[in-house]
Design goal:
Strand content of chain B: 15-25%
Structural class of chain B: alpha+beta
Oligomer: heterodimer
Strand order of the largest sheet of chain A: 1-2
Largest interface: A-B, 61 and 65 residues
Strand content of chain A: under 5%
Distance between the termini of chain A: 8 Å
Largest sheet of chain B: 5 strands, mixed
Number of strands of chain A: 2
Helix content of chain B: 25-40%
Shape of chain B: globular
Strand order of the largest sheet of chain B: 19-18-20-17-21
Number of helices of chain A: 16
Structural class of chain A: mainly alpha
Distance between the termini of chain B: 29 Å
Radius of gyration of chain B: 26 Å
C-alpha cells in the first residue's frame, strides 16, 4: 500500500508540470493579451487609457517576451520560492488572492458533497429496495425535475423570491458585517446561515444523477447469490443491506471524489457568479477573461493538484471499502 | 455667494474664452475658517476626545465653498452603490476620485477652480500658473503644497522607470511638461509648445496626476528619497521598486489606487476596506481633512460612508436596485433594455430615475476600413460614392423605431445639435432612405452586375460581401441595429455579415488592420476637442476606418501609412486648434475640419446617441437629475457626491 502511495505521489510531479504548461498555453491562446483586454474593458464604459500607458504596460508585464520564456520564469519562481507571480489586474501577489478563495471553495465542495450524499444514498437505496413503489416513482419524478432545471436558473429564481418577496439578504456567503471580519465562531455561524442556499442549488442536480446510479447499482447487487445466502443465514434486512450490497454500490460515489472539485469549480461558475459567492470560480473566470495569466494559471495548477490528490484518496478509500479491489 | 455648482446658462463660448476673469471671481466665493459651521457628529466626537484637531485647524483658511444643488444638507448615512467583479476601479474614481487642480461645471461647459483657486495662462497658452488653496490638507493631516505637485510630475510622472513615456496629456511636441515651484502655493507648468486644451484636459480623469501623489508618503517608494527602497520592495513581496510604488501609490486608473488604505488622498472619502482581488465590497469613509464646505460653512462630505458592493453579475446588481439596496446607480444598468424593469419597480425600490445626456454623438458609427489590406476591398470602401450609396440604403427610421423605441433621430457625425459647433451638412447628409438612388449610385460606381441571387458583383467577379465586427456582450443594441441594416442592404444587392466577436478579438483585428468594417458609438458630441476620432484619423485604436493613418499621425510619420492630403490637412488644423487659446478662433479652425470631414464622408452613422439613465433613491438629495454621461465628465463625480445627503 505504502509503495503504491509513494509511486502515485512521484507520478504527480511530471503530471503537474505537463498540466501547468498546457494551462499556460491555453490561457494564452485567445487573441490579444492582458493589455488588450484591459483597454477593451475600460473602453466598454467609454473610458480611455492613455496611449503611452498601454505600451508601457506590455513592457512592464513582460508580455513582449516569447511565451516559453514567460512560462519558464513563472514555473521557476513557483518551484524555487513558492512565488506564483503578480496578478496583472490587481498588482498584488497571486498567492494573496487565491488561498482564502480556495479554502471557501473546498468548504462549499465538502458541504455540497455531504448534502448530496445525505440525500442521494438513502433515497437510492430506498428506491432500489422498494422498486416500482409509489415512493420510487415519486422520487424518480423529482430527481428528473432536479436534473432538468439549470442550476443558475434555480439560483436566480430562489434569489428573486428571497430578495423581493421576503426581503432577505441574498448573495455572498457572509452578512456584510462579517465579510472582512477575522475568523471567529460568529463568522462560522454566519457562513452556515448563508451556505445552505448555494449548497441546495448545487446539490439538486448532482443528487438526481447519483440517486439513479445508486439505484441501478443496488438493483444489480440485490439479486446476487451472496445476498440470498446472507438472508438465508438469518441476517437482519438492514445489516444485510449495509454490510454487502451497499459497500459495493458505493464504488462510483467514492471513485468520483476526485472529480468533485474541478466539477464544482467549472460547473458552479454561473451559480457562483449569480449568487456572488467569494469562491474560486468567479475569480478564475474573470482572470481567464482578462488574460490575467499568472492568476488563472495558479488557480488551474491548484485545482489540478487537488484533483490528483483527490484521485489518490479515492483509490485508497476504494481499497478500504470495496472488498473486490486489491492493490497487488 | 457665487453659485459654483450650478452656473446654468453660461455658453461654452463665454466660458472657454474667459478663463482669467473667472478665476478672479472664484476668490470671492470663499468663507473664512473662523465662521465655519459644523462638522459630522462622529468627527466632533473625535475632536472632543482629543483624537483629532478642531475643525478650524483641519480646514484651509479659505476653504472652497460648494453651493449645494438643492439645499444645505445634514450629516450621516451610508451611500450604497454597485461595482462589477473586477477592473471596475473607475466606478470608484467616478464617485470619489475627482479632486484635480480644476474641475468641470455641471453643464460640462466650463472649467472651474478646485484645488487651484485660480490660475494665469500666458498669451500662447504654453505656461499655466496655478495658485493652490492655502492650507488644504491630505487625508492624514499633512499640508498639500506646491511641493506635492512638483513631486508628482517631476519625480513620479517624468521618472522613466515608472513611466517610460510621460502620459500624453502632459507632453506636447514630444516633450514632457516642466513644473516649477514659485512659492509654497504657486506652481508653474511650462509646455514645450502651446497647449490651449490643457485646462480642459486637466479637468478630465486623466488630468489627475498633479494631485495624485503625496510627497511625504510616496517619496518613500522612490530610490531618490529612499536608498533602501529595493530591499523594502523585496520585503513587501514586490519584484521591483516601480512595482512596489504602483502597488502602494497607485495610478489614475488601476485597481491598486483603491487598494491601499494607508495612502493619503485629497478625496472626500478615503479607503477603509480596499479594492483588492477577491474583495466582495469596498468601503470608503469620510476624510476628516476634506477641504470643501457648504454655503453655511459645514465641512463636506455629508455622507459618512460609501459602500460599493461588488456584484459579479449585472442581473444581481439589478436585483439589488429594485429591492432598494442601492442609493444611486447608473453604471452597468443604464442600457435601454433595463428601463422597463426599473420603471416598473420604482415604488418597490423607492427610487426615481435620473437622465443621462450622452456626450457621444453617434449611437452606431459604421467604420468601413478604407485602408483595407485587400486591394479590391480597399478600392470599394475608399470609393466615396459607395459609402454614400450604402448610407442612402439604410432605413434609419425603422432602426430608431424598433431598436431605440423612437428615442433618436437620423444622424451622421459631428458635434450634437445643442453644441455651438454643430455642422448641419456633416450631421444630416445622406440620411434619407432612398434605395433606388443607392442602387443607381452603386451601378455607376461599377458594381452593377448581379449574381443569380440578386447580389451585386465587384468588377473582379466576386460578390460584394463584407463583415461588420460588433461586440455583442458590450453593445447588444448594435447587433440588433446591424441585423436591420443587413436586411436593408440586401434590398440594394449588398451582402453583409454581422460578425459578432469577443472584445479582445475585436481590438486585435482593429490593431492588425484585419477588419472589413467595425461599429462603435461615435464620440465627440459634447466634447469634440477631447475625442475627434471620427473627424479625422486621430485615434490608433478608435479611428477604425483608417487605423494605419492614425498610427502615422500619432507616431509623427514614423509608423503606419501616410494618409491622403485631406487627412493631413485636418491633422494640421487640429494641431492648430489644440494650440489656440481663443475659443472663437479655435471654433473657426474646428469648423474647417468638420467641413472637410463632411466632404470626405468617411464614416457612416445611423442615429444620434440615445441617452442613458440611472436611479436615485427617493431619500437621497442634492443629486442633479440630469447629468452628462461621459468619461471626460466622469459622472456622477462632477455633480459633487460630497454634497449628496440623506433624509431618513
Amino acid at each position: 500500500m505504502l509503495v503504491f502511495i509513494g509511486k502515485r505521489l512521484l507520478w504527480m510531479i511530471p503530471s503537474l508540470f505537463a498540466i501547468s504548461f498546457l494551462a499556460f498555453v491555453l490561457i494564452q491562446l485567445p487573441p490579444g493579451d492582458y493589455v488588450t483586454t484591459y483597454i477593451a474593458t475600460l473602453a466598454s464604459s467609454n473610458e480611455v487609457v492613455d496611449q503611452n500607458t498601454a505600451a508601457q504596460l506590455r513592457e512592464r508585464f513582460g508580455l513582449d517576451q516569447p511565451m516559453l520564456i514567460q512560462y519558464l520564469k513563472w514555473i521557476w519562481n513557483i518551484v524555487t520560492r513558492g512565488d506564483f507571480g503578480i496578478s496583472f489586474e490587481w498588482q498584488q501577489p497571486v498567492s494573496g488572492l487565491i488561498w482564502e478563495r480556495m479554502a471557501l471553495t473546498l468548504v462549499l465542495a465538502l458541504a455540497t458533497l455531504v448534502a448530496t450524499w445525505a440525500i442521494a444514498l438513502p433515497i437510492g437505496v430506498y428506491s432500489a429496495v422498494k422498486k416500482y413503489s409509489i415512493g420510487d416513482y415519486l422520487f424518480t419524478a423529482f430527481t428528473f425535475l432536479g436534473l432538468a432545471i439549470p442550476s443558475f436558473l434555480l439560483a436566480l429564481v430562489l434569489m428573486y423570491v428571497a430578495a423581493v418577496e421576503f426581503g432577505q439578504d441574498v448573495g455572498g456567503l457572509f452578512s456584510s458585517e462579517f465579510e472582512t471580519a477575522p475568523w471567529s465562531i460568529a463568522k462560522m455561524l454566519n457562513l452556515l446561515s448563508h451556505i445552505w442556499l448555494p449548497v441546495v442549488i448545487l446539490a439538486v442536480s448532482s443528487t438526481a444523477s447519483l440517486i439513479r446510479v445508486m439505484r441501478a447499482n443496488m438493483l444489480d447487487e440485490l439479486p446476487k447469490p451472496y445476498v440470498t445466502t446472507a438472508r438465508a443465514k438469518g441476517l437482519s434486512e438492514f445489516r444485510l443491506l449495509v454490510k454487502y450490497p451497499l459497500r459495493i454500490a458505493l464504488n462510483p460515489f467514492i471513485s468520483t471524489i476526485a472529480w468533485l472539485l474541478p466539477n464544482l469549480i467549472s460547473g458552479s461558475v454561473v451559480v457562483a457568479i449569480v449568487l456572488n459567492l467569494p469562491t474560486a470560480a468567479p475569480l478564475l473566470l474573470q482572470a481567464l477573461m482578462a488574460q490575467d495569466m499568472y492568476l488563472a494559471g495558479a488557480f488551474i495548477l491548484l485545482i489540478c493538484a487537488l484533483t490528483l490528490i483527490g484521485s489518490l484518496i479515492s483509490d485508497i478509500l476504494l481499497a478500504l471499502v470495496d472488498p473486490r479491489i486489491r492493490l497487488e | 455667494m457665487r453659485d459654483e455648482t450650478v452656473s446654468r446658462g453660461v455658453s461654452r463660448r463665454a466660458v472657454l474664452g474667459g478663463m482669467a476673469g473667472m478665476a478672479a471671481l472664484s476668490l470671492a466665493g470663499r468663507v473664512s475658517a473662523a465662521d465655519t459651521g459644523g462638522e459630522a457628529p462622529a468627527l466632533a466626537g473625535l475632536v472632543k476626545d482629543g483624537k483629532l484637531p478642531p475643525l478650524a485647524e483641519r480646514l484651509p483658511k479659505k476653504p472652497m465653498v460648494v453651493t449645494p444643488y438643492e439645499k444645505v444638507g445634514t450629516y450621516g448615512g451610508t451611500l450604497r452603490r454597485g461595482l462589477r467583479g473586477s477592473s471596475d476601479h473607475n466606478g470608484i474614481l467616478r464617485m470619489v476620485g475627482n479632486q484635480s487642480l480644476v474641475r468641470w461645471n455641471l453643464e460640462f461647459t466650463q472649467v472651474l477652480p478646485n484645488l487651484a483657486e485660480r490660475w494665469d495662462v500666458n498669451a500662447d497658452a504654453s505656461q499655466f500658473t496655478f495658485y493652490l488653496i492655502q492650507g488644504a490638507r491630505w487625508s492624514d493631516g499633512h499640508p498639500f503644497t506646491a511641493d506635492d505637485v512638483v513631486f508628482a510630475i517631476e519625480d513620479c510622472v517624468k521618472n522613466t522607470d515608472l513611466y517610460s513615456a510621460a502620459p500624453a496629456q502632459l507632453s506636447v511636441a514630444g516633450k514632457a511638461v516642466n513644473v516649477t515651484k514659485i512659492d509654497d502655493y504657486t506652481v508653474k507648468f511650462t509646455f514645450a509648445a502651446p497647449n490651449a486644451l490643457y485646462l480642459e484636459n486637466l479637468a478630465t480623469p486623466l488630468g489627475q496626476h498633479p494631485t495624485l501623489f503625496p510627497k511625504h508618503y510616496c517619496s518613500q517608494f522612490l530610490p531618490k528619497y529612499n536608498p533602501n527602497v529595493a530591499e523594502d520592495a523585496k520585503k513587501a513581496g514586490a519584484s521591483s521598486w516601480p512595482e512596489f510604488f504602483r502597488a502602494r501609490c497607485g495610478d489614475i486608473e488601476i485597481p491598486s489606487r483603491w487598494g491601499n488604505p494607508d495612502k493619503p488622498t485629497l478625496d472626500p472619502w478615503v479607503v477603509k476596506e480596499p479594492y483588492t482581488g477577491g474583495a466582495t465590497r469596498v468601503v470608503m469613509t469620510r476624510n476628516p481633512y476634506f477641504w470643501q464646505v457648504d454655503t453655511s460653512g459645514n465641512q463636506l462630505p455629508y455622507v459618512d460612508e460609501i459602500n460599493f458592493g461588488i456584484s459579479q453579475d449585472v442581473e444581481s446588481l439589478m436585483l439589488n436596485v429594485i429591492s432598494g439596496k442601492i442609493d444611486i446607480q447608473e453604471r452597468h444598468i443604464s442600457v435601454l433594455a433595463n428601463k422597463p424593469t426599473l420603471s416598473q419597480n420604482m415604488k418597490k425600490g423607492d427610487y426615481h430615475l435620473l437622465t443621462l445626456v450622452p456626450s457621444t454623438s453617434q449611437q452606431c458609427q459604421i467604420y468601413f476600413n478604407i485602408t483595407h489590406k485587400d486591394p479590391a476591398m480597399r478600392k470599394m470602401f475608399a470609393d466615396k460614392s459607395v459609402r454614400q450609396a450604402l448610407s442612402l440604403g439604410i432605413n434609419r427610421q425603422e432602426i430608431i423605431d424598433i431598436v431605440y423605441f423612437g428615442q433618436s433621430q437620423p444622424y451622421q457625425a459631428g458635434p450634437r445639435p445643442e453644441h455651438p459647433w454643430y455642422n448641419e451638412k456633416y450631421a444630416r447628409q445622406f440620411t434619407d432612405y432612398d434605395p433606388d438612388k443607392a442602387g443607381a449610385m452603386l451601378d455607376q460606381a461599377g458594381y452593377g452586375k448581379k449574381d443569380a441571387n440578386g447580389f451585386r458583383l465587384r468588377p473582379d467577379g466576386q460578390k460584394v460581401f463584407f463583415a461588420i465586427d460588433v461586440i455583442p456582450t458590450l453593445y447588444p443594441d448594435l447587433v440588433d441595429a446591424l441585423e436591420l441594416v443587413k436586411a436593408h442592404w440586401a434590398q440594394i444587392g449588398v451582402d453583409m455579415k454581422v460578425n459578432t466577436i469577443e472584445r479582445a478579438l475585436y481590438y486585435t483585428r482593429g490593431d492588425d488592420n484585419a477588419h472589413d468594417a467595425q461599429v462603435w458609438p461615435g464620440p465627440g458630441g459634447l466634447d469634440p476637442m477631447l475625442d475627434p476620432r471620427d473627424f479625422f484619423a486621430f485615434h490608433p485604436q478608435g479611428s477604425r476606418y483608417a487605423i494605419p493613418w492614425s498610427v502615422w499621425y500619432t507616431s509623427n510619420g514614423k509608423k503606419g501609412e501616410e494618409p491622403p492630403e485631406s487627412q493631413k490637412k485636418r491633422m494640421k488644423l487640429f494641431d492648430e486648434a489644440r494650440s489656440t487659446a481663443d475659443l472663437e478662433k479655435r471654433g473657426a479652425v474646428m469648423k474647417q475640419i468638420f467641413d472637410i470631414a463632411a466632404e470626405e464622408f468617411e464614416t457612416v452613422g445611423l442615429c444620434l446617441a440615445v441617452g442613458g439613465f440611472g436611479i436615485i433613491r427617493n431619500n437621497l438629495h442634492n443629486v442633479p437629475e440630469k447629468q452628462p454621461d461621459s468619461w471626460s465628465w466622469p459622472n456622477p463625480g462632477p455633480a459633487m457626491p460630497q454634497q449628496f445627503f440623506f433624509t431618513s
